[in-house]
Amino acid sequence: MTHTTLRPEFETLIDPYAPVGQLGTGFTFTEGPIWHPVGHYLLFSDMPADVRRRWDAARGVAEVKRPANKCNGMTYDAELNLIVCEHATSSLIRERPDGRREVLASHFEKQELNSPNDVCVHSSGAIYFSDPWYGRMPVFGVERPRQLGFQGVYRVPTGGGAPQLLVDRTLFDQPNGLCFSPDERRLYVNDTVQTLIRVFDVAPDGTLGNARVFASGIRSELEPGVPDGMKCDQHGNIWVTAPGGIWVYAMNGDLLGKVRVPEKVANLSWGGTDFRTLFMTATHSVYTVTTKVGPRSEPYMTATGGTAATPSSAPAPQLRAEALQLDPKRCALIIQDLQNDVIMEGGAFAGSGAPAHARAQRVVDNVRRLADAARARGVVVIHVWFIVEPGAPGLTLNAPLFEGLVDANAMVRGSWGAAPVAGLEPRAGDFVVEKMRMSAWEGSRLETILRATGRDMLIDTGAWTNMSIEHTARTGADKGYFMIVPEDCCSTMNAEWHNASINFAMQNVAVVTNADAVIKAIG
Predict the structure, then answer these.
(1) Whether residue 464 has a cis bond before it, omega within 30° of 0
(2) How far is CA 181 from the centre of its chain?
(3) Strand 331-336 and strand 380-386: pairing?
(4) I need a surface site. Which of 46, 120, 198, 500 has the fewest CB within 10 A?
(5) Is the pTM of this model over 0.70?
(6) Phi, psi (deg, nearest 5) at residue 415
(7) Secondary structure, 3-state, 213-252
(8) Do residues 242 and 227 make contact, with C-beta atoms less than 8 angstroms apart?
(9) Can you spell out the DSSP letters for 41-69?
(10) What confidence tens digit (pLDDT) does each residue in 209-218 have?
């Protein structure tokens, strides 16, 4: 067996006999691998040699930049600009495709950063990076005194601005690799010296909280390797460099198995035409191995020619309810307002008749069945929840629906009523969007997620048909999205209101169909 299986789930992620291939060797110390989704090439850095190189199947390895400011971690943003951590300049920079260079972060509180090390981009456009001081050491950087007295993790806000320190100054010795969970509700950051991974909750404003240790003891007296580069796969498992290669952890912190690599691995990144090739920069060489799983969807992965995919950039599909065909890679399933207060007995709106109509429609079972099929086929699943804080601050009482919500003390964050109904809880890889209006678009990050993941066919499900679902479908059509409404995955207060919406208003803005037809259409 090439790799080490510790739990059976590991073999659903990679064949335990999958061969590890070498793309190139003879380098000094390789780092920062990142795959270009349009050009189909790998960039990687050789810090001590101060060189950036690329590899593609036609030409092999070629030098593309020297000097390279001893660059380390690299990624792309949604417009395929290259984001680079530079050790020699203590800067995080953006390189445009035309060669223009922009400094994103270089100082915190008028002191030079230590040396930005690894970086990831949120779907909002905000950029998160770690700042240990390896770049002020000989060989891996330029030896010089430190100005900051701590090593932190930072965020560059959407649209730019001064970096924001996100963690306590004493928490990390050497923060290094970092990555988001598939739903971006958690950020993982490892510490090379402490040999552990911490996980944080990501707040709506992008700050971090609730720090806790996710995995510890990532060390060995027998094999070289430390926590350094780190990535999250599409199911939420964490792949981190470690003794002997790469260790893979489940979302609950269980160690599933180990990918064995001949040299000490510093970083990793998925690529290839289907993002199922794992590239590993390992000291003097770059290696690859084929996996059964791909990465979490990042904004750059669906970009086309330097511009993120948008609804208007895709050709119009041929959509007919009687012969529906959908491309799963263009689809997103929206599960809207299926929360206890909305459709369950004992909920705030139980007296409206909504629970009885939801049962008659079998809406929970149908949506669950559709969601399972969607996830299996690579369709993005987005849960849209109506959430208010206690007392509903900021909710304007300009309509009877909102007045009734406040009167009933409904949809309050953390309450049973605001929780998703049993069976429709978010899974690994799903997104959660919060709103305070009927439409899923209004005041939410829905469109940011759709643009980042390149989705323009929206399968709209949930409650209530004649309000939230109809509002979302109408606005989606106006925005240029292709709306699909499986009517047996929607419910409202009674059949009369449901049928009026489905048979009249929806016919003009969406393809009206059913769950079975959608499951068949996505293959």
Answers:
(1) yes
(2) 6
(3) parallel
(4) 500
(5) no
(6) -90, 165
(7) EEECCCCCCCCCCCCCCEEEECCCCEEEEECCEEEEECCC
(8) yes
(9) EEEEEETTTTEEEEEETTTEEEEEESS-T
(10) 999 999 999 9
